[in-house]
Amino acid sequence: MTIVLASNTGLSRNLEHAGSMFFSQWLVSIHMGNGTRVELRIDSPEECPVAAVSATTGGVGRSVSRVDEPESDRTIEEFVLESTTDQSAPELTDHPIPIETVFSDASSQVYRFDRDWQHDCPCTAIEEFGHPIADVEAREGALFITCYVSELDDIRTLLTELWSQYTGMSVERLIRSDADQGDSTLVYVDRAVLTDRQAEVLETALEMGYFEHPKAANAGDVADELGINRSTFAEHLAAAQRKLLPNIVSGDSG
Fold first, then answer.
1. Rounded to the nearest 10 degrees, what angle do helices 219-226 and 196-208 cross at?
2. I need a labelling partner for 248 at 20 to 30 A (CA). Which of 103, 143, 174, 188 fits?
3. Cβ(109)–Cβ(103) under 8 Å?
């Protein structure tokens, strides 16, 4: 069984030039097959009026649809806002993009707005990679997006690009296709459970080949690189493994 950690290694060097911090998550693949449902959360995306409306009204934005009009360089979007209270439909007058009410009843409202058709937003950013949006929902200012990706390398590419654009992005779940259940497991590991020091120790050990067979570096080599003694290195490494390995061994996909 082969475990591949898709960490920020090799990526952080490029992102440092933009002042970005390394990723707070790792993608772990155990003999991954094709077909994965990717569920993402993006907190407070400034480019999304639907998310902004959900934040100011407390409602839930669903059924987002759009029509591009290249000749006029505009895109028309509609969405349904489901009310969570008994209050009447709010008038959305304080948003940078004018939003008009198209329909309203006791439980929901349909709103419409238009924007520049080349305006970047999370959904179009995903679709530019060839992954159609399967579902999108906005709650309390956060955008929840679902799409399907066929290959692991494509997931890495997509997440790398989205993390570079949206600092509030996190992966909710990765669910592999039932057709692949017999020979693969996809596990999502939240690197935020590690302290900064534990993450640094684990990443340095990976980069120096401590986990390779035969080892490219021993505990003393890694400890020297980190400027700590061997016992401190062992303590940090053991703590990191206790936090990460249970999720991998149990095969929990999130």
1. 130
2. 143
3. yes
**b (16+ CB within 10 A) / e for 86-98:** eeebbebeeeeee
> Would you kindly state where each structural domain of the chain is located, as residue ranges?
48-119, 194-244
> How many CB atoms sit inside 10 A of residue 168's CB?
13
Residue 37 burial (CB count, 10 A): 17
Q: What's the pTM?
A: 0.60
Rounded CA gap, 229 and 210, in Å?
A: 16
The count of C-alpha atoms lying within 13 angstroms of the C-alpha of 36, restricted to the half-sphere facing its C-beta, is 28
Specify which residues 3 forms β-bridges with: 30
Q: What is the mean pLDDT of each run of 10 residues along the chain (254 residues)?
A: 36 32 44 73 89 89 86 88 68 72 87 82 90 93 93 86 88 73 57 84 91 88 94 90 72 47
